[in-house]
Amino acid sequence: MDTVDATMEKLREQCLSRGASGIQGLARFFRRLDQDKSRSLDAGELQQGLAELGLVLDMAEAEGVCRRWDRDGSGTLDLEEFLRALRPPMSQAREAVIAAAFAKLDRSGDGVVTVDDLRGVYSCRAHPKVRSGEWTEEEVLRRFLDNFDSSSEKDGQVTLAEFQDYYSGVSASMDTDEEFVAMMTSAWRL
Description:
By secondary structure, the chain is mainly alpha-helical. It has helices spanning 3-17, 22-33, 43-52, 59-69, 79-86, 92-105, 115-119, 128-131, 137-146, 160-171, 177-188, and strands spanning 40-41, 77-78, 112-113, 158-159.
C-alpha cells in the first residue's frame, strides 16, 4: 500500500469511526475549508484540513492525494471526487449483484447500456410526464440513463464501470450485504 492509499484508508477509518454522520460531517468540513469558495480543494487546503483531523501530510503527499483522486484533471479535488475516494470497497456479493443487474439491462451484450437496450426492460408509458405529453418515452429513457452516466457530457451510454460507480455510492449507505443484495434484486427483478 502506497502513501496515498494509506492516507485515504486512515481518513476512511476516521469517517467510519464517526458513525453515519461521518461522511456528511466531512462534507461540511470540506466546504468550510474551501477558502476561495471554488467548490474544490487544492493541495494546500487539503493539507490544512487533514491536519485538523489529525492526519499530517507534507505537501508532496497532499499533492499525491489530489492527483490520485482528481477524476476531471482540474488539479484540485471537488467534494464528489473526494467522497467517492472515501467509499469503502464493495464485497464480492455486492459486485456480483450489480454485474447481474447491468447484464439484464445490456440486452445487446456489448458492455454498454443505451436507450435501445432499455426499451425492452424499462417501460415508461406510465411515467407521469409521458402521460401528460410533456416528455416522450425516449426522453424518459435518456434521463434514466443519465442518472448512471458519470461522464461530464452525458453521452446516452452507460458502461459497467459507471454503473458500478453509481451503486458504490448506494452501497456505502447500506450496512449489510444481505440488505444491498435484497434491494438490488427487488429493484431490478433479478
